[in-house]
From TrEMBL:
It catalyses: L-homoserine + NADP(+) = L-aspartate 4-semialdehyde + NADPH + H(+); L-aspartate + ATP = 4-phospho-L-aspartate + ADP; L-homoserine + NAD(+) = L-aspartate 4-semialdehyde + NADH + H(+). Pathway: Amino-acid biosynthesis; L-methionine biosynthesis via de novo pathway; L-homoserine from L-aspartate: step 1/3; Amino-acid biosynthesis; L-threonine biosynthesis; L-threonine from L-aspartate: step 1/5; Amino-acid biosynthesis; L-methionine biosynthesis via de novo pathway; L-homoserine from L-aspartate: step 3/3; Amino-acid biosynthesis; L-lysine biosynthesis via DAP pathway; (S)-tetrahydrodipicolinate from L-aspartate: step 1/4. Its EC number is 1.1.1.3, 2.7.2.4. PROSITE patterns: ACT (PS51671), ASPARTOKINASE (PS00324), HOMOSER_DHGENASE (PS01042). One of its GO terms (biological process) is homoserine biosynthetic process. This is Aspartate kinase. Homotetramer. Residues 404-477 form the ACT domain.
């Protein structure tokens, strides 16, 4: 025997019923006899409930709604049954609808709707759908028969969620099918969801009702397989509406399916499949609308898997009840009393957690019942509360539960560690935890506003064959920002394949416009990101959006040289958003501010990275941090830290004009957005300050002495154009600097030195014996003398400015966050 069950969407329209008939026909060709169980046409059960409610309230338009149900069935008949055979089917449907209307008239007269009557009203949905579809199949030439499950499935009288009496049911089912096989073996279309009491009163089987019917039949007939046909490709690793990367689970065990479904997976409701599980009958979850997809096979064992976990599921809305007090420690019976009273009031507990100190017990419940639960417990524990043995019973709301489920978690270490670490790095606070000793489910309670972020972050790390997603927000689409975007776009395929990392640029802003899309912007479209087509920029609004999106693995990148923007770093870090920047402003302000940012990042478990603050992409900050962390001590730093000034002094030669060389440096992308910062020595001052701080010294900007190379007229220039004019006017001054040096056989270098707690920057002439003499292009050179590098200093040298090298330094920082978060 092969049982096929089709849900409401599968029989929701003429088109879908056609598809159901095709599937049924294709199974009939196979040797096994088949039984089909249908739900009501999609939406009909809810309409019947609504009709019942309207009739009770005396609203006469319930008739109108009943007609609409009739029409839907008539339309199926018109479309799928030849005209000359339609009238008798119309008549049967009409008769059934008349029966419903009589019943409703009674309800509207007495204005009372008992659960018993409600069950009877609801039964019409399955009765109509099976009746009509069986006739359609017959009309197509395949023997079929309508089967009213009320004649087979016997239950108690708990209307709304009746318990099946297997002793009575099993022989009735077996007898019915034996009789069928003795006749012409028509395919029975069995009404899902309904049964009847011994007295013949109609009952319904509660949540997952039609699945339950299929399972009862399958178990009684010892079916080879039960197919649950629905509208998705089987069970998924997570709810795809919440986790877009969720994918199909090919095989799953009963136990896993149970755990996942308990936590909200709505595809099937495995408790109702218990009868089949108990008899070891495999269940396939298949898609009516994609019938070739293999779906999910639910059975006692699952195939070996690539991942330790099988799925992640959630309950979106729960409340947590906390019972605590010193009087609970070592006192037996508190939990018995607690859960006893909850059971007596039929309150279902979703999750329980108690620390071994026994000082508190907390448990999760449906928030709708929270006030009632509090009142019940307040009354039950009134004396204990009075005596101070138990503190007030508190309720926490707006929480969700996430469950990671999988047989692979059993006896495998590190899963909980990974789970907590991912949530921690994303700033998701865990309110309570529970793991059963079966070890196939770890459940955590978190705040509801973090649910989507947590689900996606967990899915991303536990199902690692998919790329981890880094959600990037970029401010500044000038030279560096634009180059970075181009590099991200060009590396996209490589990062996905080789690093399992997907960079998703979610927000872009410059001084004029900003654009955001939580699903990610199409970088193809942002080739010229300077021309952003968005709304007028407000940094506050941009930052608020980043926080309110609350996406996992978020990174804020500041590619401006703006002073205001850095005011937002702290609150971003505090919201567990990492910050990457080439902008030196934040790290070269007061020491207190510098420390605060470091601390905030550390406390939050996120990253604040700024390798490009010094020497662009050269690995200077990372090297320095490595030395300091491993216990080295810094004695002296001597360096050329300005790419612009390096370029200028390597290119300025007799016959050329100083101002032209500065213009070239700007065109080559070496200068700051405001070149006065480079020429005045300000940029170098910031860099040596940052280096000294990174080397462990508490330095303020005022501790850096800058011997500027500019004459007063240039220093006083109020605007950038005026500055260039002044450079031109002072050409003789610069020529003299150059000729004096070359007369001495020296080259000009702007050298920064840090020693004995003092930083000094000044223009120096260096001879051929000096290690900085040979420097070319826009190179930087940094020499660290430390306890360990005393004889010969550690030297880093190379291009220290320019769009490509700077953007790639920012890129590397960004990618390192991807690895850290993963
Ligand atoms: N050019 C280089 O070799 C290196 C540059 N850097 C740093 O990189 C940063 C960016 O430099 P560039 O790209 O050359 O600058 P840029 O002037 O070309 O671009 C700056 C961008 O920031 C945007 N912006 C400025 N203030 C803003 C605000 N308040 N809100 C929104 N957007 C704002 C501008 O609209 C522009 O898109 C600077 O901090 C610079 O010091 C660091 C290392 C090397
Ligand atoms: N303008 C800077 C760029 C890097 O910070 C320089 O010239 O070095
Ligand atoms: Na660097």
């Amino acid at each position: 025997m092969h049982v096929l069950k089709f849900g409401g969407t599968s029989v929701g329209s003429v088109e879908s019923i056609r598809q159901v008939i095709r599937i049924v026909d294709s199974h009939r060709q196979q040797s096994n006899p088949i039984a089909v169980v249908l739900s009501a046409m999609g939406g009909v059960t809810n309409q019947l409930i609504e009709i019942g409610r309207m009739a009770t309230n005396g609203q006469l338009d319930y008739m109108e709604l009943a007609r609409r149900i009739e029409d839907r069935h008539f339309n199926v008949i018109k479309a799928l049954i030849p005209i000359k055979e339609q009238s008798k089917v119309f008549a049967t449907v009409r008769g059934t609808i008349n029966e419903l209307e009589d019943l409703l008239r009674g309800v509207s007269l007495i204005r009372e709707l008992t659960p018993r009557t409600m069950d009877l009203i609801m039964s019409f949905g399955e009765r109509l759908s099976n009746l009509v579809v069986a006739e359609c199949v017959k009309a197509g030439g395949t023997p079929a028969t309508f089967c009213d499950a009320r004649d087979l499935i016997k239950t108690d009288a708990q209307f709304g969620h009746a318990e099946v009496n297997y002793t009575l049911t099993t022989p009735l089912v077996q007898g019915y099918f034996a009789d069928l096989s003795n006749s012409s073996s028509p395919i029975p279309f069995v009404t899902g969801f309904i049964g009847s009491t011994e007295k013949g009163e109609t009952t319904t089987l509660g949540r997952g009702g039609s699945d339950y019917t299929a399972s009862i039949l399958g178990a009684a007939l010892n079916a080879e397989v039960i197919d649950i046909w629905t509208d998705v490709d089987g069970m998924m690793t997570a709810d795809p509406r919440k986790v877009p990367n969720a994918f199909n689970i090919p095989t799953i065990t009963y136990a896993e399916a149970m755990e996942l479904s308990h936590f909200g997976a709505k595809v099937i409701y495995p408790p109702s499949l218990q009868p089949a599980f108990a008899r070891n009958i495999p269940i396939r979850v298949l898609n009516t609308f994609n019938a070739d997809h293999p779906g999910t096979l639910v059975s006692r064992t699952a195939e070996r898997r690539q991942y330790t976990i099988t799925g992640i599921s959630s309950i979106d809305d729960v409340a947590l009840v906390n019972v605590q007090g010193s009087g609970m420690i070592g006192v037996a019976g508190v939990s018995a009393k607690l859960f006893g009273v909850l059971a007596a009031h039929r309150i279902s507990v979703i999750l329980i957690s108690q620390a071994s100190s026994e000082h508190s017990i907390c448990f999760a419940i449906d928030p709708k019942g929270a006030d009632r639960v509090k009142a019940i417990l307040d009354a039950e524990f009134a004396v204990d509360i009075d005596h101070g043995h138990i503190d007030n019973i508190s309720i926490e709301r707006d929480l969700s539960i996430i469950a990671t489920v999988g047989e692979g978690m059993r006896k495998s270490s590190g899963i909980a560690g990974k789970l907590f670490s991912v949530l921690g790095k994303n700033g998701v606070n865990i309110v309570a935890v529970a793991q059963g000793s079966s070890e196939i489910n770890i459940s955590v309670v978190i705040t509801k506003n973090n649910l989507s972020k947590a689900l996606n972050a967990l899915h991303n790390v536990f199902f690692q064959s998919e790329a981890r997603v880094l959600n990037v927000f970029l401010v500044g689409t000038g030279l560096i920002g634009q180059t970075l975007l181009r590099q991200i776009h060009a590396q996209d395929a490589y990062l996905r394949q080789e690093k399992l990392l997907k960079i998703c640029v979610v927000g872009l802003a410059n001084t004029k416009k900003m654009v955001l899309d939580p699903k990610g912007l199409n970088l193809e479209q942002w080739q010229d990101a300077q021309q952003i087509d968005g709304v007028t920029t407000s940094l506050e609004a941009f930052v608020e959006k980043i926080k309110s999106y609350n996406l996992p693995n978020s990174v804020f990148i500041d590619c401006t040289s703006d002073k205001d923007i850095v005011q937002h770093y702290e609150s971003l870090l505090d919201a567990n958003i990492s910050v990457v920047t080439p902008n030196k402003v934040a790290n070269s302000g007061s020491y207190a501010e510098y420390r605060r940012l470091q601390r905030t990042a550390l406390n939050r478990g996120v990253k604040f990275l700024y390798e490009t603050n010094v020497g662009a992409g050269l690995p200077i900050i990372n090297t320095l941090q490595g030395l300091l962390t491993s216990g080295d001590r810094f004695l002296k730093i001597e360096a050329i830290l300005s790419g612009t000034l390096s370029y200028i002094f390597n290119s300025f030669a007799p016959g050329s004009k100083f101002v032209d060389v500065v213009r070239e440096a700007k065109e080559k992308g070496y200068t700051e957005p405001d070149p006065r910062d480079d020429l005045s020595g300000q940029d170098v001052a910031r860099k040596i300050l940052i280096l000294a701080r990174e080397a462990g010294f508490e330095l303020e900007p005022s501790d850096v002495t800058v011997e500027t190379l500019l004459p007063p007229a240039c220093l006083a220039a109020p605007t950038i154009p005026a500055f260039f004019d002044s450079l031109e006017a002072e050409n003789g001054y610069f020529e003299k600097l150059l000729s004096d040096a070359s007369d001495r056989g020296e080259k000009l270098r702007m050298i920064a030195t840090f020693e004995n707690g003092k930083a000094v920057i000044g223009l120096r002439g260096v001879g051929p014996e000096h290690p900085f003499y040979q420097l070319t292009g826009a190179d930087n050179i940094i020499s660290f003398t430390t306890e360990r590098y005393k004889e010969r200093p550690l030297v880093i040298k190379g291009p220290g400015a320019g769009a490509e090298v700077t953007a790639s330094g920012v890129f590397a920082d960004m990618v390192s966050i991807g690895s850290y978060l993963g």
